[in-house]
Amino acid sequence: MSRRRPRFPTGSVARYTVLVLMFVLLAGPLLWQLSLSLKGPGDDLYAQPPRLVPDDPTFGNYTGVLDRVPVLRFVMNSGLVALLVVGGNVLFATAAGFALARLRFRFRGLVTALFVAALLVPVEAVIIAQFLLVRSAGLTDSLLGVALPTFVAPLNVLLMRNAFAGIPDELEEAAVLDGAGVWQRFLRVCVPQVKGVMAVVAIFAFVGSWNDFLWPLIVLSDEQNYTLTVGLNMLKGTFYDDPRLIAAGTIVALVPIIVFFAALQRFFMRGLEQGGIKG
Amino acid sequence: MSGTVTASRRGMRREGRTRPARHPHWTRGSWYVPWLFLGVALAVVSTFVLFPFFNTLLLSFTDATLLRGGQFVGVDNFRELWGDARFRTALLNSTLYVVCVVPVMVVLPLVLAALVAGKGRLLGFFRTSYYLPVIMSPVIVGLVWTNLLDRRGLVNSVLGWVSAVGEPVPFLTDRWLLLFSAMFVTIWMGMGYYMVIYLAALANIDPTLYDSADVDGAGTVRKFLHVTMPGVRNTMGLIGLFSSIAAFRVFGEVYVLTDGTGGTGGDNLTMTMLIQREGTGLQARTGYAGAISLVMFAIMAVLLVLQLVAQNRQRRNG
């Protein structure tokens, strides 16, 4: 952030008015969803004017959803997939990024070009072929099948490569003089320098995996294996007549991601400023 | 050993100023060490991105189905696409998505960024809350807005209450209203992302420019038009590119708002929905779906090239 920012000497009131209106537009729908999820049978959902505070507040909608749809199971499935994807990207994108940035070997340029080419292929263009592949490996309807295609994302490899390339030579030179091998240079010298970028990779891998919808929708068929997004999509069909239950389901799904965001928001902003791109 | 030395010399010349070139002694480990570091990443990316891409190329020239390998049929799939009404609808919807969503995504987040830039807890709070929808799943956002836009949902309640409309507005059933509602939802959840990118660009504008504008007596709007916008022109190009590719790929919002049906008679199908629909399930025609995928890839590549050319020209003229 620059020390001197664009100033709006006369427009301060106008500025905050716009900001507050925007906030209402963004937070309002979520607040309404929360209110809806707490409304009991005694509430008129369609009262005019609409009422934000429930007359007959209840947690019954939450127990109702949890009883009839295995939401916690979905959360666990999503968590497992996210764990695999985050682990894969943090470990293997880091290792690959290190090799591309700090080791010399034949075909290095070619391999880098492969990762760049892979970055340019949109997932929609290959998703059917990916499905055929996972199917022939017998991994349809499994969480492993959901996690595999994004286990190491080309974008993360290239992000890590750039991070490693930014480390000053002197650090590594000193380590080499001390007789450090490749492994020590990687773990002791270079990795500590790029921890911030690794955190960014981890966070975006988590969010991407947690929110992914198209791929798990294609791969999974048994309800027991549904991830949260695919499972939530079912809510609409299951509780067609009762928006209160749908609302309760979405709030259950929202809480973990909001907590996660609140805890790590500093990294989110930094990640974007470093040029992280949404998957 | 001598082979390795030649290779590294050749590499040195080719890669010119890349850093490790000055330190040939760093390569003293065995030749396979780099491949140990690269192995898993290379295997995953080749297997799940590069190979499927070539497989899609091949598939699109066959009449393969999910259960059958299929024969080479030349360009039959593409000829069929040309006459397929659903394909035209999907192409139209995805294109409209780009045309309508992108201008908003380029301008609105910039205005927001200019408004929330600066120090102070309150501004920080606004920044964070504007970003929050970005990390929410399109499915959740779709469900939230389904409740809001329903015939009897909040939006219609409010409109009815202030007597703006006599009949409930069919946001989720009318062919065009549904498409525009979905676009609104896309913008609602995507704004914060581009806002943060703009924030980084705004921080790089020379603050003395604003001071000289002050001296010239420029107001807020003129400063925005004549200092802020030119200062972030490259970022605007970049965001135009990102958001047009993102808009063309739209899936989750439309899928959830239409209950996965793509609207009445499939009128609201998008390209991605069409691929998902043709390429999965027991009746899947993977060859045909491959052809749609390929067309989609080609269009996205064209978007990319067009945007880059436009940006280059702008830079040369500016």
From TrEMBL, chain A:
Task: State a single Pfam family of this protein.
Answer: BPD_transp_1
For this UniProt record, give its keywords in alphabetical order, as a comma-separated list: Cell membrane, Membrane, Transmembrane, Transmembrane helix, Transport
Q: Give the ABC transmembrane type-1 domain ranges.
A: 75-263
Classify the source by domain of life.
Bacteria
Q: How does it sit in the membrane?
A: Multi-pass membrane protein
Major location (coarse): membrane
Where in or outside the cell it occurs: the entry states:
Cell membrane
**Is Membrane tagged as a keyword?**
yes
Q: Does the keyword Transmembrane helix apply?
A: yes
Matching InterPro entries, A to Z? Answer: MetI-like, MetI-like_sf
Which residues are listed as membrane-spanning? 12-32, 80-101, 113-133, 139-159, 197-218, 245-264
Q: Which family does this protein fall into? A: Belongs to the binding-protein-dependent transport system permease family.
* Name of the molecule in the record: Carbohydrate ABC transporter permease
